[in-house]
Amino acid sequence: MKTLFDKIWDAHVVTPESRANPATLYIDLHLIHEVTSPQAFTVLRERGLPVRRPDRTLATIDHSTPTLKDETGEPLYVSEQSRTQVATLLANTAAHGIETHGWDSDARGVVHVMGPELGAVQPGMTIVCGDSHTSTHGAFGSIAFGIGTTQVGHVLATQCLLMRKPKTMAIELEGELSQGVTPKDVILAIIAEIGVGGGTGYALEYRGRVFEQMSMEGRMTVCNMSIEAGARCGLIAPDETTYRYLRGRPHAPEDYDAAVERWRALRTDDGATFDKTVRMDASAIRPMATYGTHPGHAAPVDDLIPDVFGEADERALTYMKVRSGERLSAQNVDRVFVGSCTNGRLEDMRATADVLRGRVVAPHVRMIVVPGSESVKASAEAEGLDRIVRLAGAEWREPGCSMCIAMNGDKAEPGELVVSTSNRNFAGRQGPGARTVLASPETAAASAVAGYVTSVAGLEE
């Protein structure tokens, strides 16, 4: 009896792991972007090596791309370095015949948003990218994980990777979610429960009715933040929701019905054992937000900030200018960011617009809404979501990573408090000295309107 992870892993082992050596794992899909690929292409060029499987490589520009354009439609790069990074990727991928989605593509976007939209991500695959949040794609029933720049070169040259097999952990939620609780709240609650190191050395499988009832967008949000629990990857077994999402997309298999029949076997067998199992009460989860400087510092939005233990936690609260026993709502919000590979999909744009409809962003708050891809942007605009955002006093931007990483011109000023739908709240992540509160799109939008950290329920009281 095998777990889902074991089935996929075993099907991709080229040479097995030994005491002395990691396993050699075949990679089905290599996603690349402009930040972690230039050095890898340089190594290939110096060694006279081609890209072994350009047909299994997919590129986009996202991290360094600005979300603002000038009056002529030209992107407003924050620096020449950013412009060069983008130009270098486009030149490298053109030289090696790699499918690339640049400024002229209607599929361009954040790599972990546009890859699934193209149907390039499929059940049973092994997927890598020079980006830690590659775990997003495990939502499709795949093994997906981030790799370093040196490993990017290895995969470009060999389509394989050396890797030790992680242990397996089942995350099981029992019961039903309460109204207003989102997938972002679920994953923040899980990380708060097991800790930012709780998943270290494990592949997480999210199991049970709560995850089965989630949309693909919600599942991607959950798997996206598996890495924030220290896990190697996170995955959810494919089902009818998965098959409906992928049908008809550009990279979907030609004989789609036959592919679905193969994918149906991608489930953990009855009787298979995990190395560890974590069970939580789904009904106890409430809208969440972070109060410290890592995603494990999370608690229900309307709760008091909990007591902390140890110097590291104390430093985190000092940095965030909060204290145990206070409410997050005591903090005025300066900026709100909706977007990123965690919450930049169409479902997130709709949720944001639903909260903003008929309301106005507080005068002292600057809110930006950044679609995760050109496809998301076009669909949202077709539904009029951009007009709702603008009428509320928020900014509607071009697709990109934006404030998630603050290397593209979108950043907060020192000391400012940002409510963000991204995945990391480390000190300075959204700008030197900036303070980040992670939350769902609904909570982010409600906080923008209220001017302080609050949930939708708090806004309506």
Write structural notes for this entry:
The longest helix is centred in the N-terminal third of the chain and has 17 residues. α13 packs across α15. The mean pLDDT is 97. This protein has 461 residues and is α/β, with parallel strands linked by helices. 32% of the residues lie in helices and 17% in strands. It has 3 domains: 160 residues, Aconitase, domain 3 (2-Layer Sandwich), CATH 3.30.499.10; 101 residues, Aconitase, Domain 2 (3-Layer(aba) Sandwich), CATH 3.40.1060.10; 169 residues, Aconitase, domain 3. The chain starts with a helix and ends with a helix. The strands form 5 sheets. The chain has a 5-stranded parallel beta sheet, sandwiched between helices. The chain contains 17 helices and 19 strands.
Q: What's the alpha carbon Rg, rounded to whole Å?
A: 21 Å
Categorize the overall geometry. Answer: globular
Strand order of the largest sheet: 5-4-3-6-7
Which class best fits the helix and strand makeup? alpha/beta
Low-confidence stretches: none
Compute the number of structural domains: 3
The separation of the N and C termini measures 51 Å
Mean pLDDT: 97
The total beta strand count reads 19
- CATH H-level superfamily title of the largest domain: Aconitase, domain 3
Percent of residues in helices comes to 25-40%
**What is the beta-strand fraction?**
15-25%
What's the total helix number? 17
Biggest β-sheet description: 5 strands, parallel
What is the CATH architecture descriptor of the largest domain? Answer: 2-Layer Sandwich
